[in-house]
Write a structure and sequence with these properties.
The complex is a heterodimer of chains A (513) and B (346). Chain A is an alpha/beta fold. Chain A is 31% helix and 25% strand. Chain B has one domain (49-177, 188-344): ABC transporter involved in vitamin B12 uptake, BtuC, CATH 1.10.3470. In chain B, the strands form 2 sheets. In chain B, strands 1-4 form a two-stranded antiparallel ribbon. The chains are: A alpha/beta (513), B mainly alpha (346). Chain A: It is found in: Cell membrane.
């Protein structure tokens, strides 16, 4: 790889690895891609940007052979190719890291990395080589994951790393990364970027898809923008601003990433938690939320932010501590008691824990408050059911063809709005938003920020858990920083910075304690 | 803000995606119903005795046990579970009812009530083992299947309980709106055979079960648990109680089926109902219930039960052996589920 080095001083012409010309793909009733062109040079990172539904994933699936194109040409290393399976594209040297994790929970890390490609000795798996090779892949990533560990024991971020290790093990010349950082912390993302730079230096071409435009500056060389299945532009990343990219993605200029706050946090304490402890997970958690305030929970993955929220919501147990709403201690034993007290929790795992995906829009919107649309005998009043659902569909601008559409067919942003609507229907006093914009495109993110601000303006207390510091800084009034199960600082957002927060999140403090 | 969700864009989106899910659902229903009609038409041609009022009642009577058990199976399967114990539970319930009447002299209605409650008790135990001891439903109800059958055999000494008196047979053999007169020699002359009580029971219960599933909060919670148990719990659904409820329904209906069956034979057989759970599951599956959970309807199961019942009856009348019948029903299950999967693929 890397080709023959030419004489010093004479720049090597970048070798073209992959070229797509006029690629089109149609699904029954939907033109997913039309006339899309794209090329990838050896040793570059080429980002593909676009909103959800712009055709990024379809394009990647065509390159990797999951789908077949209807029209156009794909030239890989100088030859026109027609891959009909990922097996073929992998054999040719094109690897893809999927957005959704494709790991087998009950196999070990090493067995997953080499799944269906196990090194063999006769009929048997060569276990020694399996684990040695896996160890090498993981070391190359610089992550501390035991190849013998079962995947089900790993965190989401660790699974993502295993997925990346798996792609690396293929020694691919083209590597497609679909949202590789969506569940990584800043620190872990940094590790990944280091690996990407190594791969670039080795001549690998990388197609990079991400919603986090800010992080792209570190690694991306060129950027291609798609909108509604059409090719918009390709530019050198240094010649274009993030604002331009966003404007082209959404087809209109986007002034602000965060809405100007309309809320005015009150001074009275609405909700307070003191001494909350769950042995081995978090200890002595104290915080207060004022009426109409957004409190950010910052910290590294595994610092205990989600665990604290889940415990307060009654989804997980805790050992000691008190929770008070409006100055009165409330007893929380399970999610039902928390919901009845006026607490709502929007899970970070939308499909896994937030939505009944096979059920229609209206059934999901009313799921947490069925009593309000039924009579005392538990019989659903269909008119009230329909009216209430429609109200939240309108209020939150949920884009759906009908109330009876199963939610699995909606976009991530609309799914998130449905979860928000579900909780609004309960008229909660406190809402926990756990990674509310993960995997959601720019336009929908802004809408969700607006909704959060509007809710706070109505006097609801909001906790925002986010791994994206700009989001915390752009949205919250105060920030509680978590480190290893403790709150190490509570800062006023206006008087703090990304660096400050990172410092507390990594367990150090300014005064070098 | 609001105009996105109503008016033209909505229509456009529906058209672009082709058929809406509602339309598909209707087509699916008609497909199942249609195959039922075709089946009946074919059998009507091949056998002259098929399309008669009497045979219709016979089929309905034969279908009652599959349909009643199928309704229970549908509830359980929608939550993502399975109930393998119903065949044994119905035997136990019937035997208990018969013994209560014969050995303890309880009135027949009370004996049958005890039988039905025996079924409910089995459901409670299933529910407890699954939701509290957290055993997989397959294992929990497999255990119950063996235990209930064992108890039924033990308390009867593996012998049939007979000599229950004619009154014990009324539930299984009587009918509503039966018109008959007694002729000179004392033999009854039947003007209209009436609607057998079991068929009346089946229809009433199916309607009630369908209503509960579609129109009540409890029904909605059953679907929610099968669609996503975590999301349901985090939305405040009492997953434990609702899940247990479905097993209690299944057990109770098994108990009722047992009483009806034993009453029809006026004899309680501890060996009755072997492998009925598979018929029940098959009827639900043919009717479009997904074993993964979250999907299924009572009307679908009802049609599924009739598909099985009509196939058996019609094939019998055409002299097809029981073994060939098994093969055909097996194929029907494979084909219907395959069609269902194609339909759901996108």
């Amino acid at each position: 790889m890397g080709g023959v080095q030419l004489a010093a001083g004479e720049p090597e012409p970048a070798r073209l690895l992959l070229r797509l010309e006029g690629v089109a793909k149609e699904f029954p009733g939907v033109k997913a891609l039309q006339g899309v062109s794209f090329d990838l040079r050896a040793g570059e990172v080429h980002a593909v940007c676009g909103e959800n539904g712009a055709g990024k994933s379809t394009l990647m699936k065509i390159i990797s052979g999951v789908y077949q194109r209807d029209a156009g040409e794909i030239v890989y290393k100088g030859e026109t190719v027609h891959f009909t399976s990922t097996h073929q594209s992998e054999a040719a040297g094109i690897a893809i890291i999927h957005q959704e994790l494709n790991l087998v929970p009950h196999l070990t890390v090493a067995e997953n990395i080499y799944l269906a490609r196990e090194p063999r000795r006769g009929f048997l798996v060569d276990r020694r080589r399996l684990y040695a090779d896996s160890r090498r892949c993981l070391d190359r990533l610089g992550v501390d994951i035991d190849p013998h560990a079962q995947v089900r024991t790993l965190s989401v971020a660790q699974c993502q790393m295993v997925e990346i290790a798996k792609a690396l093990s293929l020694d691919a010349s083209v590597l497609i990364m679909d949202e590789p950082t969506s569940s990584l912390t800043e620190q872990e993302a940094r590790l990944l970027f280091r690996v990407i730079r190594d791969l670039k230096a080795a001549g690998t071409g990388i197609v990079y898809i991400s919603h986090r435009l800010d992080e792209m500056a570190e690694i991306v060389d060129r950027v291609t923008i798609l909108r509604d299945g059409r090719y918009i532009s390709t530019d050198d990343f240094s010649a274009i601003t993030v604002d331009d990219i966003v404007a082209r993605m959404v087809g209109r200029p986007l002034e602000e990433k965060f809405p100007a706050p309309t809320r005015q946090p009150g001074s009275e304490v609405l909700f307070s938690v003191s001494g909350l402890t769950r042995r081995g997970v978090f200890s002595d958690i104290n915080f207060e939320i004022r009426r109409g305030e957004i409190l950010g929970f910052a910290g590294l993955m595994g610092a205990g932010r989600t665990e604290v929220a889940r415990a307060i919501f009654g989804a997980d147990p805790f050992d000691s501590g008190t929770i008070a709403l409006n100055g009165q201690t409330i007893a929380i034993t399970d999610p039902r008691s928390a919901i009845e007290a006026g607490i709502a929790y929007l899970s970070e795992d939308r499909k896994g824990q937030g939505l009944a995906v096979k059920m229609p829009v209206d059934a999901n919107l009313t799921l947490a408050n069925m009593d309000a649309v039924a009579n005392s005998a538990g019989i659903i009043d269909r008119q009230r059911h329909r009216a209430s659902s429609q109200h939240y569909v309108d209020l939150l601008s949920i884009k759906t063809p009908s109330l009876s559409q199963p939610v699995r067919l909606l976009s991530g942003g609309n799914q998130q709005k449905i979860i928000i609507g579900k909780w609004l229907f309960r008229e909660p006093k406190i809402m926990f938003f756990d990674e509310p914009t993960r995997g959601i495109d720019v336009g929908a993110k802004f809408a969700i920020y607006q909704i959060m601000d509007a809710l706070a303006a109505r006097g609801i207390g909001i906790v925002l858990i986010s791994s994206e510091l700009p989001e915390i800084l752009g949205l919250s009034d105060r920030v509680a920083v978590f480190h290893e199960g403790r709150i190490t600082a509570t800062l006023s957002t206006r008087e703090t910075s990304q660096e400050d927060i990172m410092l507390y999140a990594s367990g150090r403090s300014r005064h070098g304690e | 803000m609001a105009d996105i969700t109503n008016g033209k864009p909505q229509e456009a989106m529906t058209q672009r995606k082709g058929l809406s899910d509602r339309q598909k659902d209707i087509i699916q229903k008609f497909a199942a119903l249609g195959s039922l009609v075709i089946l009946a038409a074919v059998f009507a041609v091949t056998s002259s005795a098929f399309l008669t009022v009497n045979n219709g009642m016979t089929i309905a009577l034969q279908v009652t046990s599959i349909a009643l058990l199928g309704i229970g199976a549908t509830y359980v399967i929608i939550t993502g579970g399975i109930d393998l114990s119903v065949g044994s539970v119905l035997a136990l319930a019937g035997v208990v009812a018969a013994l209560a009447v014969k050995d303890y002299g309880t009135p027949i209605w009370l004996g049958m009530l005890i039988g039905i409650l025996t079924g409910s008790a089995c459901g409670v135990i299933n529910g407890f083992v699954i939701t509290r001891l957290k055993l997989p439903p397959f294992i929990a109800t497999l255990g119950m299947m063996l235990i209930a059958r064992g108890v039924a055999l033990q308390i009867t000494g593996a012998r049939a309980v007979s000599g229950l008196g004619e009154a014990f047979g009324v539930l299984g053999n009587g009918s509503l709106l039966r018109i008959e007169s007694i002729d000179d020699q004392g033999f009854p002359v039947v003007t209209f055979p009436g609607i057998p009580y079991p068929v009346v029971l089946m229809i009433v219960i199916a309607v009630a079960a369908g209503f509960l599933l579609n129109r009540t909060v409890l029904g909605r919670h059953i679907y929610a648990i099968g669609s996503n148990a975590d999301a349901a719990r985090l939305s405040g659904v009492n997953v434990t109680r609702v899940t247990a409820f479905t097993y209690i329904v299944s057990g109770t209906l098994a108990g009722l089926t047992g009483c009806v069956l034993m009453s029809r034979l006026v004899t309680a057989q501890p060996n009755e109902g072997v492998a009925y759970e598979l018929d029940a599951i098959a009827s639900a599956v043919i009717g479009g219930t997904s074993l993964i959970g979250g999907v299924g309807t009572i009307s679908g199961t009802f049609i599924g039960a009739f598909v099985i019942g009509i196939l058996r009856n019609g094939l019998n009348m055409n002299g097809v052996s029981a073994f060939i019948q098994q093969i055909i029903i097996g194929l029907v299950i494979l084909v219907t589920v395959w069609i269902d999967q194609i339909r759901n693929r996108r």
